[in-house]
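User: Modeling request: complex.
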Amino acid sequence: MGQLSLQTVTKSFGTIDVVKGVSLDVVEGEFMVFVGPSGCGKSTLLRMIAGLEHTTAGDIVIDGVRVNDMAPVDRGIAMVFQSYALYPHMTVFENIAFPLRVEGLAEAQVRDKVGAAARILHLEDRLQQKPGNLSGGQRQRVAIGRAIVRAPEIFLFDEPLSNLDAALRADMRIELTRLHKQLGATMIYVTHDQIEAMTMADRIVVLHDGYIAQVGAPLELYHTPQTLFVAGFIGNPRMNVLPVTCVGVDATGVTVDLEGQHLHVPVTVPAAARAGLPGQRLSLGIRPEHIALAQGAAADGTAHLRVTPSVIEHLGQQTIGYATDDTAVAGDGGEAVSFCFVLPGTQSIRPDLPVALAFATDDCHLFDAQGRAFARRIDMAGLTLPPMADPATGG
Amino acid sequence: MSDPAITGTYVPAKPAKTKTQVAPRARRASTRAMIDRYSVTEYVMIYAGIALFLFFMLAPFVEGFLVSLKPLSQLFSTPYSFWPEGGSFEAYRTMWVRIPYFGLYIFNSLLIATVSTVIVLILVVPAAYAFARFRFRGMALVLGAFLAVSMFSGAVLLIPLFRLMRTLGLLNTYWAMIIPGAAFLIPSAIWLLRTYMMRIPPELNEAAYMDGASQFYTFRRVILPIARPGIVVVAIMTFIGAYAQQFIFALTFNSKTEYMPLPVGLFAFFGKQEVIWNELMAASFVGIAPALVIIFVLQRHLVGGLTAGAVK
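Assistant: Request completed. Predicted assembly structure:
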């Protein structure tokens, strides 16, 4: 129950293809997050699963049944809208009770179920109020209440937190994660906010231009992005990408040239692809948080950079520096690239003064000219969480 | 290197000594938002403008009321006296004697206007919803046709309408006044209500659909209650329209005294030699009164902000 499968699902509006063949399996009880920039098709995909949009091609299968032509209720799905879409003339009680009234449930059962939903969402005191008198967070909870009251197998959330302020968003994030644990239902959550994706998801689906760019656990996407797009999208501030030239390749990795420094990046290159690599232009990715102030002379396995940041942000717990185009490090071919670094604590650096930075080549990512990543030779066990116990037995 | 912005040196702000902009006597104005503040001259001009328009609109009513109080002889005295001398409400009594059917005329007027309004609402509310929510072939054409039709007044089409009524055998019935009246009010009502319904967020339809509601259930339980203020506006507009336009249809399609509405009934005050002005005016005021009451009752349902809290 609550198992969802998409099989080369496609959606076109007229001649424009919005979703271009997405295949995905969501297991029961999973918290799946669709993430991507605006226009990547994530909301359309969600609306197709919901039954609000017609599917141009491909199959949507829920618990082994093809549901393409079924109404949302028959699919066992409930959805929480970005704009909440509460019925403004009804009380909170009637809003939550609406799906039950449609079903034609007896009054006593309606009271029980609405009461239970209100308890889960801490709305007991608000049941007789109208949505217009509620705060944003409370309206959000009413919208969720309307979804959970029918006890569906799959919940869909369309950017539910985007209308809330930052503090409330953080609270609701935790509340939604708690709700997911409590209900144990499958949840599919669309957002463009990668913090929401990282914090809530069991698995993240990164969508790019109508295709799935990568599917994986949050830390898997963070540590081993398969494309330059995913690398740039997951992680904040975004990963720095420096143009480099390949000077050598062997079984232990690729040696690249960055401003005259030869760096050995530990990645796996298939033997067949090694011969053509030297001399090629590659992209070296380094996350801002893996950069430190340079200590002493250049050692083996570290890269050194001299950067003149134009803006410094002192956040107390970290210091963030931005070097924008004109003051940036000179790239390999002399062109300017923007560069960002995050240093722990408060560092006494000032804008427009050069600063010496260093990073370990072990932390580097390497991408080919097409933006595909070379597999990193890292021990994922130390960087990600151990796999969860089987929810059926460990629940 | 001491940068005051970083070391945080406190630089005390100079006390403001600017001249106050608000006139000291305009104490009430000082609590208003800046955008709502006006100078004395502006106030004088605003109120002078309001007074001018009010005068033009209300003067006929005032004069009509004063005429209804005067004895008939005083109306033609020279010099004309604006204020009634020895004024009384006598005309409000004698008019009932002169026109025994007067009560029936008022009832007819209300009946025709009310039935027209009910017919228009029954037809227009679903139609406006369909035009607001659904896309279908020929929609723009139909809407355009409605707009074009509403540009004709009923008077232009009297002769074809007369033939139609005769063919249908509706002449000299209430329907002869109700049906054309309702027909000419439908187009503008559709346009008015469609605009209102387009402002109801479509997410509400989607949410109701996700909750398992049918189109009709959604319409009845979600759309109708939210559209109530718009429906009330349409009802008021239609009622006033039906009340005002019944004269021409009654005059041409009906010759039975007992079906006549008030405006035609008032013709009885136009005698062969003279017009009984004071009673005519008294009858007009009494005749308007029930309509006024109905409109005031409807107006109480005009509450704004019904969609507050629906989205965002």
